[in-house]
Each structure stands twice: as C-alpha cells, then as structure tokens.
Structure prediction request, 322 residues.
Amino acid sequence: MYLKCWGTRGSLPVPMNNTRFLALFDDVVAQGKKLGIEKAADLLAAAKTGKLHHPVVYGGNTTCSEVGHDGKVVYFDMGSGFREAGTAAMQHGVKEFNIFMTHMHWDHIMGMPYFVPIHVSGHKLNIYHVHKNAPEFIKINFNGVNFPLTWDQLNGQVEFHQLKLYEKVEFGDLSVTPFVLDHPGGSFGYRCDAGGKACAIGVDGEYKRLTPKELGRDLQYFQNLDLLLFDAQYEMSELASRFDWGHCSPNIGVDLALREGIKIMLFTHHDPWATEEKLRRMFANTMKYMHSQLDIYSDIWSKVQPDGPRLQMAHDGLTIEL
Prediction:
C-alpha cells in the first residue's frame, strides 16, 4: 500500500509568486553557505539529495490524496491537487476513477472542474460520499456562471454513490471504511486496509473528541494504523482563537499516535498563511513534544518501534510506501 499527496494546503491554494520564490532562494543559498557550498550545481545537488531543508517547498495545492494497492487506486477529495492527479493518471491510460469525499467545503471540491477526465468521453468518475446532499453541492458549481460549462455539457460520466457510515467499500483487496471526524457541517475520515497494512485519512478534523470514551465507535479506525494523515493546520497557540473552525494542531496528533500506536503521523492541511519557515518550526516543536512524552508510553512503543511514531510534514508530490 502507498499514499501519495497531490495537495497539502488547507482553505486556499498558495501560488508561488516572484517574491516568495526569491525568499525561498535566499534561504537555500544561506543553507548552502553554512555547509560550505558555493557553486550553483552543488547547491542544486544538495537540495535534491535532502542535504538542505527537505522539502524546499511544501507546495500550494489544496487537499487531494491517493491510496493504492496491487493496482487498485482510490482518491480522497477534489482540491486543486486533483487536477494534477487526473492528468498524471490519464497519461497512464486510466479511464475510471474512484473518489471519496470527506466533506463539501470549497477547498476540497475546487479541483473538479479542471479534472480533465470529466471532459473526455469514455472516462468515468465514481464519487463516494456520506453527505446526502453531496451531488447537489457538487453539481451547483457547473451552472454556467461559476464555471463556463453546465453539468449536462460534461463529456465524461459522473456517478454518485451514497455511503453508510462504518460500512466498507472494497476494490479487490483494498477496503475503504468511512468514520466520523469533528468538523463544522460534518466531515468524514476514511480507513484503508490492504495487504496487512492500514492508513487513515483524518482531514478535515478538529479532534475535539480525544479519549477512547469520547471517540466511541470511531476509536477503532485509529487503532493499529501504519499511517494517519492528520489535520495539523495550526500551532497550539493558535487553536484557542480558532475554536470550532474544524482544524487541529500537530501536538494533539502526537498524543493520539502515542496512545494508539500509530506508526507514521503525516501532518497536512497546512495553513495558507504558513511559510516554509513556520512549517519547519512547527515540525521541530512537535518533535520536541513527542520526545518529551515518549517515556510515558514506553510500554507500547518498546514493542512497536523504540523511537516512537515517525513524524513527517506532508508536501505536494510526497509518496509514502507502507
């Protein structure tokens, strides 16, 4: 099983303008000087091999993730990263796509009008959703005003599939099961199981329910995970002023991972205001927090992996093999 991130920003895409590029370039040069690198070719090689800060850029597309196993592929959400995902798949001859929607907020559906397969006959999009009004909320964007084409003008086939909570859908050996996340208007996570591995899509979520009792039936979908894609949009100091916005902080994800034995915590849904410098600082602080708490859960992690959960900040284009 693998997970690929096509979009890792939350709320809004973040374009790479000239000012931002030059700031990043200055940062790369400064890192190179600390390592004694002066030649441009050596600097580029250092960036490609991870000797500098990695990634150099986290990316600017909004949420879209891909999970695959043994030739079966499913996608989660249709943020602006969905456009690139579709183009890449078409280049490999893919004609049918299975998409699972967490919720209907704009940053999770904005990529669909630019998903090339829906405009090409012979291609099919299966959209799986828990929200009963998902078809209405998606179709309304194709009204000839918000987007030049109307729904009836699409050349590809789009079919909606209403899901029941906690009932899995199977694609060969790959199963996908929806569960509840904490988010205004309702949001749903998905657990993927295949080949003895398991990962979960935990975006968008504020994780107000944390204890096993509070999580109730949803607890099982966080247990025995190899990877959790976790909504970590804000620093802990920012959460109080953003209560009920539906997003979380990396430290809360660490608490969940330590308690439930989640092997890889992949932090995503980066705030559009967050610079690369801020995201690196958030990650460094999260690592410190994890190490400060690890001894408390030594009975769990001594049996799983002694160094504790592997923490990582997601970036556009990242692929993790499980």
